[in-house]
Every structure is written in structure tokens, then in C-alpha cells.
Input
Amino acid sequence: MNREPPVNPKAAVRTIDIVRSGLPRRYRAEQRFRFYGLSAILLSILFLALLFASIVGKGYSAFWQTTIKLDIFFDPAVLQKEALVNADYSALIKAAIQNLFSEVDGRQDRRLLNSLVSAGAGYQLRGMVLQNPEIVGRTVSVWVPADDEVDMTLKGHFRRDVPEAERRMSDKQLAWLDRLTAEGRVERKFNTTFLSAGDSREPELAGIWGAVSGSFFTLMISLVLSFPIGVAAAVYLEEFAGKNRWTDLIEVNINNLAAVPSIVFGLLGLAVFLNFFGLPRSAPLVGGLVLTLMTLPTIIIASRSALQAVPPSIREAALGVGASRMQMVVHHVLPLALPGMLTGTIIGMARALGESAPLLMIGMVAFIADIPHGVTDPATVLPVQIYLWADSPERAFVEKTSAAIMVLLAFLVVMNAGAIILRKRFERRW
Output
């Protein structure tokens, strides 16, 4: 009869003591690791909050514009009915503001007085006359946009308590502005121009609607092309293609293309779509084609992951009841994988919305004042518009830049929220 060797109680006690003695050190290490991780998250949130606070702090004032009330006499001698479009509307504004300050004399002083009003205020009067020609010969009170330097001064961006040589506005201009304010002729109103106009060299007249329209047309072209092509490629590679060296080569290239810098796609678009095919420069059509090439790898990878997440039992059950391979994919696999595909597509579109480097290469960096009405009209996009305004020297374009960033971030948040909602709405668990 075999006997088991006796257990040494001292050895067992020694092992337990060793384990117990190391537990406090392990617990302290775990607590330090959790502390470091929590600190990193809080630090990231702090930096993100500072970034958002800086953007909002500089950009919220762009949604408000200083306006000046003038009593405009639509002089028939100036507004000839056969030439209302090309009439000298700025002369009407100069006459109205000089009537308020009849004591101002001298060419230099009158030039300073006229500069209180935006140089583009005449376009507002032209729109009023073209819309209602009956106002010719009448006097109408009109709120016209103030010059950007007046706007910046009243918003507190320019100091008034410094010597005149260090200010953008002279003492006379400040006195005239104070008089207009005391008479109730200066107000700050919601800046509808910023949301409804195109770009302009005058900061007070610049808007983002042209860039928003260009971004919309560009993203629509990219979505219409990239989603069906990306989904079809993912379905073929995942469900029908055999495993051989050619499919392996295709998969490797798709993964590599997803990591290629975006400016490379811009160079490709410049060489192929512009130089070879001769498509119009600065057009959303070319921008959409370039962004399609850039987002295709992302959509294909996301769609393949969504297809792989469908349980094999779904495929086996469909084939077991006599469905063909195409019927199995179309009627059973695709509906279940569609939420993941849509999520990947929206994330790809959000990335495309924020891209500027590839679009700079195809000429969408040009100054475009007109609002595009089609995919072949010259246009720009929001990131490029932000880039152009950030490079402008006027102080008023600083708030325009920050406000445009706020709009772009709002679009990105909406698109990412849409991706989350779609995933939660159509997601199925097994």
C-alpha cells in the first residue's frame, strides 16, 4: 500500500505568507494605474473643454452684426428705371449719412464719415429696389450693416482708451458713432448674412452658405458613388470571392489605401480628373470623386466587419431551406449587416466633410463669391472656407473663422449622432 508523502506545513505557510505580503503592493499598483487612467481622461476632457471654450468665445459674436439706421431717399435722379441694376446705390447711402452730420465738411472728414457704413451696403439697397421698384422717390428708414471696424469696436475687440495713433478708428469717428448710438441709430442684430450669403472680401458681408452648399453637393456625389460601390465590394470579397493570392492582394491594398494621406488622393484627382479627363476645376463633381476614392477603403472595411458579425447560422439556415447564395445574401445577411454598414458610411462621410487637403489640390481653394447651384458650378467647402478666413488679416475674420468651425463641428456631431442612432435603431442581438 503506497503512502502519500507528508506535506510540509512550513512550506505551505511560507507560500501563503509570500502571496499575502505581495497583495498590498499589487493593490497599490492597481490603484496607481486607475489613477493614471482617470487623470488622462480628465486631462483630455479639460483640453477639449478649453478648445471648445476658445472657439465659442471667439466665434459666438459672429452671429450678431452691428447695423446703422439711415433714412434713405431713393432719388429718382440716381435710380434710372432702365438701369436699376447698375445704379450708384452707394451715393444714396453717402447722402443719407451726410444729412445726419451736415456740419461735417472737408473731403477727408466725409471719407471718414462714410467709412462707418459697410462698403457693400449698396447691395442691400439694390435688392430692395429690384424687389419693390415703387419705393423709388420715397424716403425709407433702412438698417444697413456697419463697417467691420465699427463692429469690432462696439463688440470690444478694439480698445478705445488708447492713443488715437494706436487705434483703428479716429476720435472723430468715435464721436460720430457715440452720437448715432445716443440717437438710437445703432443696434446689434442677428447676422442673417453670415448664414445666407457667400464669401466676400468685406468681413461684415461674408457668409458660409456658399461653402455649406459646396459641401452638400460634394458629399452627395461622394455618398452616391462610395456607398453602393463600397457595399458591393465588401459583399463580393466576404461572400463570393475565393481565398487566393489575388483576393489577398486586394485586401492588403484596401487596408493600405485606408492609411494613405488624404493629399495623395488630391494629387490623384488633379492628375486624372482635371488633367486627363478635363473636368471643371473647383467643382463639387471633382471634389466628390476625390472624396469617393478617399472614403471607399473605410466603407469597405466597415462593411466587411458588419458582414463578419452576422452569425454563420443565418447563412446556414437560409441555404438549408433552399435559398440560393444570392438570395441568402440579399434577404438575410444584408439586412442584418446594414446598420454597421450605414454607421461606417456616415463615419466615412464625416471624415470627408472635414477634409481640406485633397480639395486644395483640385482648386477648391479659389475665392468663390457666388453660391453654387449644381455639381459643376465653382464652389468651395467649409474646411477650405475656414482655411481662407484664417489666412485673412482683418480682425473680423477671426470671429468668422471660429463661427465657421462651430458650424462644421455641429455638422460632425449631427452626423456621428446619426450613426449612433442608426446603430441603436437597427441593431439586433443574438
User: Anything to note?
Assistant: The longest helix spans residues 9-59. The chain has two domains: 66-189, 209-426.
